[in-house]
Structures are given as structure tokens and as C-alpha cells.
Specification:
The protein is mostly helical. The protein is built from 11 helices and no strands. The chain is globular.
């Protein structure tokens, strides 16, 4: 992992980070606290990438699972803290808007091939900022899980997809 990329706790602050973890860990049928902690981490990594690369990732279909989206919704409802996160702690220093769209509606608009291409766009940016996907991140990123579970690619092979990126990642953090 690149040591300059901030942690989820570093981006949220210890108090809000712990609040979010406690909230989601207390829900009925919640996973273990360690899993919730990784969900929060992956949500913040998603927001970090959107903030850092708005020109390349803005408006793309959400490539993460519903649990990550639910954490994002929770953060948005903490309006003051969310604005501060977006404008002062994330690298792009701009507010990240959220717009819900159903998967069916998204597939009908650009089509499956476009959706797949957009989802693959995240992998080299993620690995440049945070290192390869690990077993704790795998369940939360839809396309990575598909490549691993359905196509049989190892996490190392998925990380190697970075070398096929069309554009270099400038100043990967």
C-alpha cells in the first residue's frame, strides 16, 4: 500500500469513524466488527478515488456493493462532517454528489459492455493508490469479486491489470 494514501480513520477522524462502525455493527444481522471496519475502509477508498480522479471516474456506475453505498448514505447524512471530508480531507477538495440509479436503468442506458469497461477503469487507480486488492476488500468491489470468483483470476492477476491501463496514474497517492 502506498504510504501517502490516508486511512479511513485518518479521513473521517477517529470519532466519526468509530461512530460509523458502531452504527453498522449494531444493525440486525450485521457482520463482525472487523468486516464493518473493512466496509468503511472501502467506502472511503471509493470516495478518495472519485475525489482524486473526477474526470475519469465521475458519473460512472458505482462499482461497489450495496453495503458500501449504505455507508456512503450514512456519511452524507452527517452533512457538516461529509462536506468537510469532501472539501478539506479528500484530495480533490470538492463536494462529491450522490445520485441513485437502478442497475437495470444503468444497463439499459450505456449497455453491459460500457458498464464493464467503466468498472474495469477502477482497478489500476485503486492499486496505484492503495496497493493490490486484498481478501478484505474483495467482497466489496463488484467487478473485482466477479473477476476473482467467476473468472478465476487471483488477486495478483487482478492487480496486474494495472499494466494494461491506457493512461498512467499521475502522482498516485
Amino acid at each position: 500500500m502506498n504510504n501517502t494514501a490516508p486511512t479511513a480513520e485518518g479521513l473521517l477522524g477517529a470519532v466519526l469513524h468509530d461512530e460509523v462502525v458502531r452504527y453498522f455493527a449494531a444493525k440486525p444481522d450485521a457482520p463482525a466488527v472487523s468486516v464493518v471496519t473493512h466496509q468503511v475502509r472501502e467506502c472511503l477508498r471509493y470516495l478518495y478515488l472519485v475525489s482524486r480522479h473526477p474526470d475519469r471516474l465521475g458519473g460512472l456506475f458505482l462499482p461497489v456493493e450495496q453495503d458500501i453505498d449504505e455507508i456512503w448514505h450514512y456519511l452524507i447524512l452527517q452533512t457538516r462532517e461529509y462536506r468537510e471530508l469532501c472539501e478539506q480531507r479528500l484530495p480533490g477538495s470538492h463536494f462529491i454528489h450522490h445520485r441513485s440509479i437502478s442497475y437495470d436503468a444503468y444497463q439499459a442506458d450505456p449497455g453491459r459492455e460500457t458498464a464493464a469497461g467503466e468498472a474495469l477503469r477502477w482497478i489500476p487507480l485503486y492499486t496505484a493508490a492503495f496497493g493490490p486488492f486484498d481478501a478484505d476488500a474483495l467482497p466489496h468491489w463488484t467487478v473485482v469479486r466477479f473477476l476473482h470468483d467467476e473468472l478465476g483470476l487471483s488477486l495478483a492477476e487482478i492487480a496486474a491489470l494495472e499494466s494494461g491501463a491506457e493512461e498512467p496514474v499521475p502522482g498516485a497517492a
